[in-house]
């Protein structure tokens, strides 16, 4: 049977299966979901066996388990290692969801629910593309799956697991769908990912909340102090002020900048998409450059004092923030974490005490566009989208990708099918059915072309 | 029977009664406690009747009820109007309490629990001083009680209630115990209170939380922006930067400053008491001046983005803060609220939207030291403390006090018996038994001396 026909005949079942996976609230950031992580892993093991894997297992780690599966056909075939993650972001703020985050529904041709795109929806395309090729007898590659449950919290266990299983996962290329297209009519393959350095800081003043009347004006307020410290981390030109922060940043040549800015980008549409009055960023760079090739610093969360209904007249004892930085080649997140901590301590006034913790990090990644696998991906997408995909430098991070290169020595192809509108990491995450099905078809074509030209 | 003897014989019962009141969680800031407000008011009505009032009633308002009670003996006697409040601060952060906030206990000679000092403990001294004078046949004043349930949230209903009941509460002086002594061996009468202007601000960027990788660096982050805006409200000399903020502040003369700084103050003890490495405040002023006669600006709470366990890589859609300012004569909180809002809007970058709300406010207050009632308070305290009390300019606010003067035309005597260590508004609020009993005795003496010299 033909691949397209098989997908067509099984389309409803594919989505029903995905819904089972989406219903498992596998939130890696919250320890209460420990059991759900195992449930999701076991569910995927069974699903991969049913899809045609010769073997599939849930392999324990110090954290959440890794699902490994494989189908080895011929020693001479090229081997593709599929990577994906079954953990999802927390659903909060939960009251902004229009549907239940872990009860997926289809509406307006889209799947709504946490993980619909990132990454359950995208990784499940791989399971179903694999099933399709096995069922139609057209698989000409060896396939391995490596699915982890800690991508959203830094992949710590997978680094170790890779060290321990280099032989098991040996492959010619790693194939990943955990990124987005520039637009539905502008297909793209992600060739660059920013690194990440995620910190948490706490500023402590008095040993308890104080009456802001009796003490206000005479005692440093940790919330005011923290605001000032955060504010000073970025100057009026949008530059990060941490000494040494830019030392290892590779400045692009004029030609590279010109090429990068050729991708279609409409700032008015961009503003409308996320409903902002104006863009803002580092002076002298375009929006594409600011997210693609320049580092950034963002407060991801801030809290301190009385945050409930009404008023409470206190000087809070503590104020805290989660602050993360996106890094670009050749910044090293470990060095950046050290520079951040040193600088943050140095700018604290003597009236407070400061704690700084590094929560997680990952290195930036650049993928070359002259690999056989890149060409296979390019051909596959050209066939399904009717347009040659552009190489794209994404602002996001998948820290483990650079880890794969350094530990396993294998390059990755980031062929994702998401769109900005999918609202990953936000309330009301969704994924287009069209994206899901076209993704499956494109992946089958990737295997076809990689079998022809690969290795 | 003698006053001292009566107090001695009934001391345990007095505290047992107070415990009943402390067990009612009358938190005015949280609407879930609506029923507890009424319970507390009814309890006080009954307690005042049992203590000797001719009549006592719970009078409804648009908010929490006012408890009014009176005992009118002779037209020719001076009339004292006792003011206090039965509402308390929220107990949060609840996990920092060493005992249950609403299950009072006695330990180390102190009463522990929310409201032990502020203001249930202090107002109940008045009920028991009144009982003592009635029971021993020594009351020579007419006494009225006016107890409200919204002091911690701005006393809105009491302003209206006073407008409507001017005749009912007519009196020669208002007597209040809702302040602290400089120290147990440095008794004081509070002659100045700062005003309060309490605002809430919200900064909105994108219409939802965004992925901080895909958008970081190109979109204004409301938490970073809010931090910058807050930071800019106070300059490096500790001056508040809102244009016009200091226009109405009366600068003290050198002689006044010298007098104010004569009160004993040990900065090392102060730092130790609240466990801070250093004091911090407006340049050119002492700690006593910074809290007593200079205005201040404090973040009382700040929140935005992901504040839970672990990491979440988002640009939050919104960030908010509660910011309050303490005001000094002759600043007007309504004018300050306007100046704040105008300034806060003006410093917002065009990349965000800003909302500003005034939550509540109150005018500063200064009490003259040449009133007959002041002298009566002075004599009473001198007798129980063995030392003449100092006039004290407190940093705190009791907004309704200046309201009493403008609406009712009656001055207030702020004879409070609290101490800094009582941790009002904080976890582990407490009140010394010694303060409670000496307060009762001092109040009976106030009535005695005011009857002799008053009106």
Secondary structure topology:
2 copies of one chain form a homodimer.
Chain A lengths: L2 H7 L1 H12 L11 H18 L3 E5 L6 E6 L7 E7 L19 E3 L2 E3 L7 H16 L6 E7 L7 H9 L8 E4 L11 E6 L1 E10 L5 E2 H4 L6 H10 L22 H7 L6 H8 L12 H6 L3 E10 L8 E2 L2 E10 L5 H14 L6 E10 L2 E2 L5 H14 L4 E4 L6 H9 L3 E3 L15 E3 H21 L2
Parallel strand pairs in A: 3-6, 3-7, 7-17, 8-16
Antiparallel strand pairs in A: 1-2, 2-6, 4-5, 5-18, 8-15, 9-13, 9-14, 10-12, 11-13
Explain how this protein is built.
Two copies of one chain form a homodimer. Chain A has 455 residues and is α+β, with helices and mostly antiparallel strands. Chain A folds into two domains: 3-193 and 364-453, Zn peptidases (Aminopeptidase, 3-Layer(aba) Sandwich), CATH 3.40.630; 195-249 and 295-361, Alpha-Beta Plaits, CATH 3.30.70. In chain A, the strands form five sheets. In chain A, strands 1-2-6-3-7-17 form a six-stranded mixed beta sheet, with helices on both faces. In chain A, strands 11-13-9-14 form a four-stranded antiparallel beta sheet. Chain A starts with a helix and ends with a helix. In chain A, α2 packs antiparallel against α4, α3 runs parallel beside α4 and α5 (156-164) packs parallel to α13. Chain A is 34% helix and 21% strand. The interface between A and B is large, with 102 and 102 residues.
């Amino acid at each position: 049977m033909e691949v397209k026909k098989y997908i067509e005949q099984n389309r409803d079942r594919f989505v029903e299966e995905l819904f089972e996976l989406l219903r498992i609230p596998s939130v890696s950031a919250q320890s209460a979901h420990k059991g759900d992580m195992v449930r999701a892993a076991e569910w995927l093991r069974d699903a991969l066996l049913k899809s045609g894997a010769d073997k599939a297992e849930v392999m324990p780690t110090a954290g959440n388990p890794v699902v490994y599966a494989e189908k080895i056909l011929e020693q001479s075939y090229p081997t593709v290692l599929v990577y994906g993650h079954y953990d999802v972001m927390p659903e909060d703020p939960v009251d902004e969801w229009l549907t239940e985050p872990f009860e997926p529904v289809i509406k307006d041709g889209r799947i709504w629910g946490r993980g619909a795109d990132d990454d359950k929806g995208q990784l499940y395309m791989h399971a179903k593309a694999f099933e399709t090729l096995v069922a139609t007898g057209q698989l000409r590659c060896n396939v391995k799956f490596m699915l982890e449950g800690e991508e959203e919290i830094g992949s710590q266990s997978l680094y170790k697991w890779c060290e321990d299983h280099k032989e098991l996962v040996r492959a010619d290329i790693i194939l990943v769908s955990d990124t987005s297209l520039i637009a539905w009519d502008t297909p793209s393959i992600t060739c660059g990912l920013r690194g990440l350095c995620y910190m948490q800081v706490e500023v402590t003043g008095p040993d308890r909340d104080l009456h802001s009347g009796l003490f206000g004006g005479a005692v440093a307020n940790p919330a005011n102090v923290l605001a000032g410290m955060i504010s000073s981390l970025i100057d009026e030109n949008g530059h990060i002020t941490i000494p040494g922060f830019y030392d290892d940043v590779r400045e692009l040549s004029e030609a590279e900048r010109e090429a990068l800015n050729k991708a279609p980008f409409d700032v008015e549409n961009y503003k409308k998409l996320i409903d902002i009055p104006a863009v803002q960023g580092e002076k002298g760079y375009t929006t594409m450059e600011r997210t693609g090739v320049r580092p950034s610093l963002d407060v991801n969360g801030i809290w301190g004092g009385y945050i409930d209904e009404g008023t409470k007249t206190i000087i809070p004892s503590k104020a805290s923030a989660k602050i993360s930085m996106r890094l670009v080649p050749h910044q090293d997140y470990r060095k950046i974490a050290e520079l951040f901590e040193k600088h943050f301590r140095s700018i604290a006034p003597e009236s407070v005490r400061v704690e700084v913790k590094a929560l997680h990090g990952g290195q930036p990644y650049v993928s070359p566009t002259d690999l056989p696998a890149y060409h296979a991906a390019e051909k596959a997408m050209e066939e399904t989208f009717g347009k040659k995909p552009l190489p794209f430098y994404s602002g996001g991070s998948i820290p483990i990708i650079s880890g794969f290169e350094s530990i396993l020595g294998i390059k990755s192809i980031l062929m994702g099918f998401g769109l900005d509108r999918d609202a990953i990491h936000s309330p009301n995450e969704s994924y287009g059915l069209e994206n899901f099905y076209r993704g499956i078809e494109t992946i089958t074509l990737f295997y076809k072309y990689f079998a022809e030209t690969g290795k």
